[in-house]
């Protein structure tokens, strides 16, 4: 039966072809002619279409893009023998040789592979302007309109997602890649003899070069479009222990690391939400930056895992975000809401952890005074910051470091009980030592606290830190108010330092003018105040005997003689208030007085405010206020030699530097 059935099918097939043979021949011939015609004209057609688009591009951006040897390669490939792009000024931006692009014909037309023998990219940036700026200024009419449109974060997140997981070709391969960059005249060259980027695991080797250094990097990565995830591992080819090129000159920063890892995965994408999880890790990071630290900063290990949630005008991290710094774990939450003006929120919480973990986690090269300290007990830190930038007064700032059964077993590099006994103090200016003297009875200029008149002590406390004898080193409200003032002014105009913080800065950190000094200052203040390493009376005594009160004038005894040719015990209330007022800017004292040595009229407001505060705190009585007369003050000591002969500076311009911010 099977044989008979097969024979019937074969006979029917033969009859069909005999019947329609002429039609099949005509159809086949027609298709052949069409295909032959297309093959013959497709390259001229491609060049005509490309030339049309190139002319439009060059006219729109006033540049010069050229493609030589443009032709089809196979059924879905396009090959370019030479490609070049020049800026409107005639500078070369791109060069490419023997480039082949494979086109995918699925649900949408997009490149699936880009391969070539040579690719050269030029990038320069000088004083904030790059050689590619013309690309972004070419569509000026549209740009002006878009500038007034609100930013749609979720649309931008979707675009980036599409770029990585859809538009980016499955394969990018160049036999030689070269990037030549320059930043404010500092050159950088990046080369790779075989660049591969694909939808599978890939390995690339890069050489970074500047005028004096070669640095070889190996990059291992992967991108999985089906699972929407990717990652990269970057590390030196050899443990070279030298700084990355370019940054040393361009940013005055040396950077080196053993390994850098980054991994990302897209979790959710729809019209209302976009979620992505990002993690990163750096092993043995070294940083050499004098603004950060006088020494090389070493971080053995740091990692972070963050889940981002993006909505139309909000981007925030999820509740599971954390960072690890040398083993110390920090949980954090942050959000940025784009309303008419940004609203920022940040929360950090460590929970309870062994106190030793904190000091072991401090990066080498930072916190020098605390290196080697041994402690026991537990700590917990909490930070909360919320700010609606439209209303700076709405700022919420809460910072608290708690302790449980905490104690110091031994001090580290610096004994924090240094101030309990007479010690050698060195004053610095711009990192250079200018004077050294003993803080104690051995120094004839030293004045014990009990011999300093009460009205002078009260004046300094009122001006600098009214709650010194009540707080534990910090005044969060004062710090918050200083931040609000700085936000309103758009620059630094006020500080929130307490006397404790000023003292620690001068005694332990005087020569370190780095951006991380504030963190070390805060930690040392917390240790001294919470463990009562030094009494409040002794701290105030040291403070009054070492603070700068004028050009190379240190301590209250030198100050009272320099300005008034008096001993501290003979200072009047008005003179004491004058001295308290110039503590924040002691070298500007001459701007507050006229050529005759009397305070300028605008200081009346300062004296009135000081009197009001001192009465409110119980430092003065109402009956003593008449003694607070600024015009009873007259400079008589050596300070007279610094006074201008004529009053050339307008008094209203001086009010901005008058130190009223410390009055609480």
| Percentage beta strand | 25-35%
Main sheet summary: 25 strands, mixed
Give the N-to-C terminal Cα separation.
Answer: 110 Å
What is the molecular shape? elongated
Task: Name the CATH homologous superfamily of the domain at 415-657.
Answer: Biosynthetic peptidoglycan transglycosylase-like
CATH architecture name of the domain at 415-657: Orthogonal Bundle
Query: What gyration radius follows from the Cα positions, in whole Å?
Result: 36 Å
CATH class of the domain at 415-657: Mainly Alpha
Low confidence ranges: 139-148, 650-664
At CATH level 3, the topology of the domain at 415-657 is Penicillin binding protein transpeptidase fold
Helical fraction equals 25-40%
What is the average per-residue confidence, as pLDDT, rounded to a whole number? 85
What's the helix count?
Answer: 14
Q: How does the helix and strand content classify structurally?
A: alpha+beta
Strand-helix topology:
Blueprint: H1 2-61, E1 64-68, E2 71-73, E3 77-86, E4 92-105, E5 109-116, E6 118-126, E7 129-130, H2 133-137, H3 140-146, H4 153-167, E8 171-174, E9 177-183, E10 186-192, E11 195-198, E12 202-209, E13 214-224, E14 229-236, H5 247-250, E15 254-256, E16 259-269, E17 274-288, E18 297-310, E19 314-317, E20 322-325, E21 328-338, E22 342-349, E23 353-354, H6 355-361, E24 374-388, E25 396-410, E26 423-429, E27 432-439, H7 454-464, H8 476-489, H9 499-508, H10 517-530, H11 536-546, E28 548-550, E29 553-554, H12 556-564, H13 573-581, H14 603-616
Parallel strand pairs: 5-8, 6-9
Antiparallel strand pairs: 1-3, 2-3, 3-4, 4-5, 4-6, 6-7, 8-11, 9-10, 10-12, 12-13, 13-14, 14-16, 15-17, 16-17, 17-18, 18-19, 18-20, 19-21, 20-21, 21-22, 22-24, 23-24, 24-25, 26-27, 28-29
Helix pairs in contact: 7-13, 9-10, 9-11
């Amino acid at each position: 039966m099977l044989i008979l059935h097969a024979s019937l099918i074969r006979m029917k097939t033969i009859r069909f072809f005999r019947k329609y043979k002429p039609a099949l021949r005509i159809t086949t011939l027609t298709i052949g002619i069409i295909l032959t015609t297309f093959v013959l004209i497709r390259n001229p057609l491609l060049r005509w279409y490309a030339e049309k688009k190139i002319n439009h591009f060059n006219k729109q951006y006033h540049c010069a893009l050229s493609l030589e040897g443009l032709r089809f390669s196979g059924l879905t490939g396009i090959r370019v023998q030479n490609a070049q792009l020049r800026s409107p000024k005639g500078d070369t931006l791109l060069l490419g040789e023997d480039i082949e692009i494979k086109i995918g014909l699925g649900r949408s037309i997009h490149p699936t592979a880009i391969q070539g023998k040579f690719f050269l990219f030029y990038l320069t940036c000088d004083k904030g302007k790059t050689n590619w700026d013309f690309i972004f200024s070419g569509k000026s009419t549209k740009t002006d309109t878009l500038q007034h449109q609100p930013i749609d974060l979720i649309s931008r997140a979707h675009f980036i997602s599409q770029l990585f997981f859809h538009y980016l070709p499955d394969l990018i391969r160049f036999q030689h890649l070269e990037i030549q960059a320059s930043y404010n005249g500092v050159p950088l060259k990046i080369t790779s003899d075989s660049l591969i980027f694909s939808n599978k695991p890939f390995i690339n080797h890069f050489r970074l070069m500047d005028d004096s250094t070669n640095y070889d990097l190996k990059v291992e990565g992967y991108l999985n479009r089906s699972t929407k995830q990717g990652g990269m591992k970057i590390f030196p080819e050899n443990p070279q222990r030298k700084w990355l090129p370019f940054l040393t000159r361009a940013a005055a920063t040396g950077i080196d690391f053993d390994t850098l890892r980054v991994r990302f995965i897209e979790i959710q994408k729809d019209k209302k939400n976009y979620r992505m999880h990002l993690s990163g890790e750096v092993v043995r990071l070294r940083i050499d930056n004098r603004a950060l630290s006088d020494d090389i900063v070493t971080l053995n290990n740091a990692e972070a895992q963050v889940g981002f949630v993006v909505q139309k005008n909000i981007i925030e991290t999820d509740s599971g975000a954390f960072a690890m710094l040398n083993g110390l774990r920090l949980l954090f939450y942050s959000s940025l809401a784009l309303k008419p003006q940004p609203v920022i929120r940040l929360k950090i919480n460590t929970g309870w952890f062994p106190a030793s973990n904190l000091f072991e986690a401090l990066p080498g090269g930072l916190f020098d005074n605390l290196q080697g300290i041994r402690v026991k007990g537990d700590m917990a830190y909490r930070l909360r910051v919320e700010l609606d930038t439209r209303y700076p007064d709405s700022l919420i700032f809460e910072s608290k470091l708690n302790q449980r059964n905490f104690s110091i077993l031994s001090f580290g590099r610096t004994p924090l009980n240094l101030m309990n006994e007479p010690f050698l103090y060195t004053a610095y200016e711009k990192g250079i030592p200018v004077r050294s003297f003993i803080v104690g009875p051995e120094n004839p200029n030293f004045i014990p606290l009990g011999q300093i008149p009460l009205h002078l002590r009260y004046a300094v406390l009122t001006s600098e830190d009214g709650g010194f004898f009540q707080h534990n080193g910090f005044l969060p409200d004062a710090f918050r108010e200083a931040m609000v003032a700085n936000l309103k002014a758009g620059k630094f105009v006020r500080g929130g330092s307490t006397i404790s913080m000023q003292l620690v800065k001068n005694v332990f950190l005087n020569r370190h003018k780095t951006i991380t000094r504030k963190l070390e200052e805060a930690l040392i203040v917390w240790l001294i105040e919470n463990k009562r390493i030094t009494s409040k009376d002794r701290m105030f005594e040291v403070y009054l005997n070492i603070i700068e009160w004028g050009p190379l004038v240190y301590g209250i005894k030198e100050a009272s003689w320099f300005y008034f040719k008096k001993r501290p015990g003979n200072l009047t209330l008005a003179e004491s208030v004058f001295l308290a007022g110039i503590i924040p800017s002691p070298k500007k004292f001459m701007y507050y007085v006229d050529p005759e040595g009397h305070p300028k009229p605008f200081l009346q407001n300062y004296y009135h405010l000081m009197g009001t505060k001192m009465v409110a705190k119980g430092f003065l009585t109402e009956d003593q206020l008449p003694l607070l007369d600024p015009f009873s003050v007259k400079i008589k000591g050596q300070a007279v030699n610094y006074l201008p002969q004529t009053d050339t500076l307008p008094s209203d311009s001086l009010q901005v530097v008058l130190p009223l911010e410390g009055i609480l």
